[in-house]
Design goal:
By secondary structure, this protein is mainly alpha-helical. It is 42% helix and 10% strand. The relative contact order is 0.17.
């Protein structure tokens, strides 16, 4: 797979009025409407994990480069990239006729922090009530016939 390893991205500013507008949010915590369930759902498909691994091995890649590496159709890879972008894990920028995809900087660190906070909230919860089956196992008092 041919990957772009350039360390520079096109500048954003007044000379590029649309710069950054086509990019997904940087992580689930950046926009309140994107939560951990959305990110976990995005991570829950094997093809999406392969796409993330492929993007981690290079700076950027276009959809066609990912298609050459994966046993999936171009439309399928595009759809999975859309899900990963919506979850804030992958970003996109235009490069001529090709859209270049990259891992969002800091997304993994923010996701790790969100998961740590989630598990910390579990530890702060009161102990759960006994399960109904536990109550059923208790011996019942016998009724004495009169």
């Amino acid at each position: 797979m041919t990957c772009s390893r350039s360390k520079t991205r096109p500048p954003s500013g007044p000379d590029r009025p649309h710069a950054g507008k086509d990019r997904a949010p940087t992580c689930c915590s950046a926009r309140p409407e994107i939560g951990l369930p959305d990110v976990f759902k995005a991570l829950g498909h094997p093809a999406r994990l392969e796409i993330l691994q492929a993007l981690a091995s290079c700076e950027t890649a276009c959809c066609g480069e990912l298609v050459k590496r994966l046993p999936l159709a171009q439309s399928t890879v595009s759809q999975h990239l859309g899900v990963l972008r919506a979850a804030g894990l992958v970003g996109m920028r235009g490069d001529g006729r090709c859209c270049r995809y990259h891992l969002e900087p800091g997304a993994l660190a923010r996701l790790t922090g969100d998961v740590e906070r989630l598990f910390a909230s579990f530890r702060q919860q009161p102990a759960p009530a006994p399960h109904i089956h536990d109550r059923m196992a208790l011996p019942r008092p016998r009724k004495d016939p009169e």
